[in-house]
Amino acid sequence: MYHWLYTQPPVAIFIFGLIASILLMYTMAFFLKKTPILDGISDHEKEFLIAIQSGLVALSSIVLSFSLVLVITNYNHADENVAAEAARINDVDRLLHQYGDPRLNSIRADLKIYAQSILVDEWPKLQLQQESAETAHLLTNVADKIAQINPITPRETVIYGELLRKLDESVEMRETRLEGAHIGLHVIYWVVNIVIIFGVLFMSALGLILNKWLTAIGISLELTALVGLMTLVFLCDHPFEGTLSVRSDAIVGSIKAMDSRK
After folding, report:
1. Which domain holds residue 172?
2. Is 95 domain-assigned?
3. How many CB atoms lie under 10 A from the CB of residue 57?
């Protein structure tokens, strides 16, 4: 279900969440009117219920804000790692070019195929929190061929040492990218957020019964803010999924740089 939600525009997710919340609140209010739970309630008790509702709104805002900070941090880390991985792939190609041996052109060609496989094969699978076996095989092939290089001159030795270092960093950053596809808020965060939201909706339903139409406007505005926060948290929760996911532009840029180096 949530994979389908990630395919929808952010505005549509927000509107859907807001409408669902308001409908649920008015449904609660409708059934609460038919119960004797609020018969003979005093003004002091009304003020107490309003205070509880305000406290729940504040608590929900705090929890959602904390969750938003976490998901944005994870998102930025994933985005920065993709840019760094693209740079390392470009560095490997640059060092192979600087090595000066025409026999290494086949490795550069394989490296480009690997970079293209990240875009074509692996990137769509990141949305499903999976990796591409074909992409992994291509990287292993490149690494094996680089390991077979036998530097002779001091210059080649220096370049080869740097080449191995950049290749290792590229492999590590790919692993970090794959791990980033599994990053998301722990289910307990969503449970707490949803429970608090239901509490807000219940107390808001009581507020609709006890007060005038102006209360309905205020409560609706509160729900709009809370649903907006929750929508942001949801959209940023999985860095490689949805319309606000991490983009592959850095990998595309590296492939263009590799092409211009021929």
Report:
1. 44-260
2. yes
3. 21
pLDDT digit string (tens) for 39-87? 666 667 667 777 777 778 888 888 888 888 888 888 888 899 999 999 9
Structural domain total, the chain: 1
d(CA 61, CA 193): 9
129-167 tens-digit pLDDT: 888 999 999 999 999 999 888 888 888 889 989 999 999
Q: Which residue bears the tokens 């596809």?
A: 181
C-alpha triplet 66, 71, 74: angle, nearest 5°: 130
Q: Are 86 and 176 in contact (CB under 8 A)?
A: no
Residues in the chain: 262
Structure tokens at 5: 């939600």
Q: If we measure between CA atoms, which residue out of 211, 247, 241, 261 comes closest to residue 71? A: 241
**Backbone torsions φ then ψ of 168, nearest 5 degrees:** -60, -40
In a domain, 15, yes or no: no
pTM: 0.77
Whole-number Å distance between alpha carbons of 61 and 9: 23
From the list 171, 177, 178, the residue with the least C-alpha distance to 141 is: 171
The answer to whether position 189 is within a domain reads yes
In a domain, 26, yes or no: no
Query: 């074509």: which residue's tokens?
Result: 120
Encoding tokens for residue 25? 């609140």
